[in-house]
Amino acid sequence: MITSFQSAKSIGNTPSARHSYKSPPRVRGIGVKFQKGLSTSTYDKSRKSVLAEAAKQPNIQYITQDFSQKFQDFVRENTENPYTNYEQVSNLTAEFLKKNLPDTILKILGDMSKGGKETIVVLKNLPVKLDENALPPTPSDDREDFEKDYVSEYFLLGLAKLMGKPYLMVNEKDGQIIQQIVPSDPKAKSSAGSKEPFEYHTENAHEENPPKIFMLSCIRGDKNANTTYYSLDDLLDNISIETIDELQKPNFLLKTGSVSNTDEFLKTAVLKKNDAGEFEVQLNTAPGRAEGTTDSAETALEEVKDFFASHTRPSVNLEQGDTLILQNKRMFHGRDAFEVSTTQEERRWLQREYVSEDPNSKL
């Protein structure tokens, strides 16, 4: 369910004020009409897609020091709390980004927002805090209070508005508009885990309308924690026609898992076609997150899981100042297992933002 964010605590009005983050209460959302999948059709494996070729490696773009300083000045001048006034912050920041980001990067973001060939992008050297402020210890879990300035939050919300519309999931992480991703449950096969690999998935596959784009901003990196990825087009080139046809039938239960406050599932097809006739996917291959309601559906799921299990997992290691941007419906992602640092000052810390389609986006 999708809603506007309405609750958090703001402190301070000075340009360098920090905010004290406290988990918001759960809020009610607005229902979204389900867009049903299209009828079964055969995938043409003879068509070696340009999209698949573009998705093999992330498009890496570097942010200049000049932009970093201008962006910090912008945040110093705008003291709105992004957790309470996210619409105002996202609009103001999107206008700043549109005027100050290089044209090359704006074109890449525009391509992604329109569902083009760019399916995975990494922006590097972004500021995550004001130069004069220290970075606080990583929260021990996604609900722990922390004090930090607004730099990374402003950028994520502005970027989301450039490409669509930022939104939150009411039943996930207490409805945070910007979610804190920290290793709080070592054995979990989710974003909170570390010791177990997190299998390939798309974000919120159990939702009727999953995010079009999602972003991860690295506040504090870990050289041993790799984010894995695999493009849908590459998967389709390597599984059977029969499985591709089966995945287009509404014979799958996609479940919420432990990340949600509810125990819900969605019965749907895993593969659907968008208005441009390209396949899109919603699927989480982690244990207990998807099952077929027929023998042939279960067989199709097993072929997908077996393929992922038997092939090398391409990955990117996110460093402080990196922002990873994915087309969620055309790119799987996951995480390799890693050992968590024993100190909170060194522990991995990401922030996550979801983006839905919006005809009033800034691009």
Question: Could you describe the 3D structure shown?
Answer:
Helix 3 packs across helix 5 (151-163) and helix 7 packs across helix 8. The protein is globular and about 60 Å long. It starts with a strand and ends in a 7-residue tail after the last strand. The chain is 23% helix and 22% strand. Strand 13 (271-273) and strand 14 (279-281) form a beta hairpin. It has one domain (50-356): Clavaminate synthase-like (Double-stranded beta-helix, 4-Layer Sandwich), CATH 3.60.130.10. With 363 residues, it is α+β, with helices and mostly antiparallel strands.
CATH class: Alpha Beta
Shape: globular
Low-confidence stretches: 1-42, 46-55
CATH superfamily: Clavaminate synthase-like
- H/E series: EEHEHHHEEHEEEEEHHEEEEEHEEEE
Count of alpha/pi helices: 8
Please state the average pLDDT score.
83
Helix/strand-derived class? alpha+beta
Major β-sheet profile = 8 strands, mixed
- State the total count of DSSP E strands: 19
- What is the CATH architecture descriptor? 4-Layer Sandwich
Beta fraction: 15-25%
Q: Rg, please? A: 20 Å
Distance between the termini: 25 Å
Number of domains: 1
- Determine the CATH topology: Double-stranded beta-helix
Query: What's the assembly state of these chains?
Result: single chain
